[in-house]
Write a structure and sequence with these properties.
8-stranded parallel β-barrel; alpha/beta; globular; about 280 residues
Amino acid sequence: MTAQEPFGARLRRAMDERGPLCVGIDPHASLLAEWGLNDDVAGLERFSRTVVEAMADRVAVLKPQSAFFERFGSRGVAVLEKAVEEARAAGALIVMDAKRGDIGSTMAAYAESFLHKDAPLFSDALTVSPYLGYGSLRPAVGLARESGAGLFVLALTSNPEGGEVQHAVRADGRNVGATMLAHLAAENAGERPLGSFGAVVGATLGDLSSYDLEINGPLLAPGIGAQGATPADLPGVFGSAVRNVVPNVSRGVLRHGPDVTALRDAADRFAEEIRAALAAV
């Protein structure tokens, strides 16, 4: 397998050229209905194809939520494979939001599904869960390095239940979320211009100055738009690490479909608001 340029370098360039915006591809039933589509494979295909057509040549990152495709079985996965292929061909980076996490050979198989260059669902990066221990992610870390891909590790998520695990304090006095950030900083040490191993950190969490977010890697930030966070909130949440943030907007853009122009306009508005927020730092 021939390695390509590392994900972190490709992401840095894409955000500099296209703006730091990630748009989700989240074809859940309510959005299909809002678009006037049936909750079936045909509706799924129309939805995903429209989002790719509208976004893939202009935004830095597209983030398909795998679960909304998997619920249709093999036909849904086939739609996802096509969306990934077409989006990457148009220049967007793909972060597969699958939140995989397991141990040993099972984790290795999950990694091969999304991070091996010959896999039908090969993605530029994959979201993963470290809550079987960070070391359980080693098969994914190794394959990502080999293929030039990246990972986004769940660290400080925006769901209220997340604190039950992520804020738990270890014997050394550091909580679990901070421990995950430290692991990622170690993975990214010495990488330029940006490491390939990022964290998922919710944009709705408020002041995070007690955490060291300077991990020399990207910070995928869900929660902008429908969940209540705004681009203007980003500097206050992420502080000095804000320029490595990949703000994710899903429903805030997707609700403007199925009109392609309206989708593009919505994405452009968010991108401009994010640029303005970063320019003020």
